[in-house]
Known about the structure:
Elements: H1 6-17, E1 20-30, E2 36-49, E3 53-56, H2 58-61, E4 66-70, E5 76-85, E6 90-95, E7 116-121, E8 131-146, E9 149-157, E10 169-171, E11 177-182, E12 192-196, H3 197-210, E13 216-217, E14 220-225, H4 227-233, E15 240-246, H5 251-254, E16 262-266, E17 269-270, H6 274-282, E18 289-296, E19 299-306, E20 308-309
Antiparallel strand pairs: 1-2, 1-4, 2-3, 3-6, 4-5, 5-6, 7-8, 7-10, 8-9, 9-12, 10-11, 11-12, 13-20, 14-15, 15-16, 16-17, 16-18, 18-19
Amino acid sequence: MPSYDESSILEVIEKVSQSVVNINTVRLLHDFYYQVVPIQGMGSGTIIDPKGYIITNNHVIAGAEKIEATLASGDVLPGKLTGTCTSDDVAVVKVEGNSLPTAELGDSNKLKVGQRVFAIGNPFGLAGGPTVTAGVISAVNRSIRSERGLIENLVQTDAAINPGNSGGPLVDIEGKVVAINTAIIPFAQGIGFAIPINTVRRCSDEIILHGKVIRPWLGVSGLSITPEIASYYGLPVERGVLITEVMSDSPAERAEIQKGDIILGFGESAIKSVEELVREIQKRRIGERARVLLLRDGEKWIADVRLEQTP
């Protein structure tokens, strides 16, 4: 673990904490007698733009009729939902403000197991401003299944992340945000999860620009090949994606990809399943070109595909 000066770390944390907000929400539910009952919620958020854009978790604001953000200064500002990326549990909230303190975003692709990190947030809605817990990166590329579905490519940390911490930043010793905390698995013992900031940045950029997340599209349906499927259908490989349909007027059709082709690679990555193919496609942007390694009639060839917006 790299050496560091504690006083400089404290200064960094103090600076980052200025960009952390407390998010309060109100949901309207109906009780047994069909009366409307307001239910309060809480979470944390991270200001990423001086104009007032705040990133948080989708589950923090899901179903909220009212959103408020309490700044580190104590000011309470009404918030408006800009958009969400439910599959990655990311949401963007906008408050009206100028020259708001913002967090510096890092590069989550450079995270290393054992790297020291700090989780900042507002656990349990306690008064007194953001709190800080310390830990290390325990693992990367974790997938967890919650009541809201499967969430992939998460960062695992032993820094304590409690209800109310969701949406707050996970920062490195330089004060750069490397992930956004999520307490989507409650009561986990000594295990916390966070969404890599590169994933968050990709979602938030699209939400701010388009008001929603626009996914790139290849235009095929496929089947994950296993040794059992390969044996049953007499396929020449035991891993990959067997294309069962090519959509009309799709990027795949324009690249002359055909039904019955087997996808073995996408870009620089080997493809062994449909899940891996989807993951690689979603890493890219609309209009980006990619080389698809295919197997057809026992011969390998490369298709050059230009990804388009999902219709």
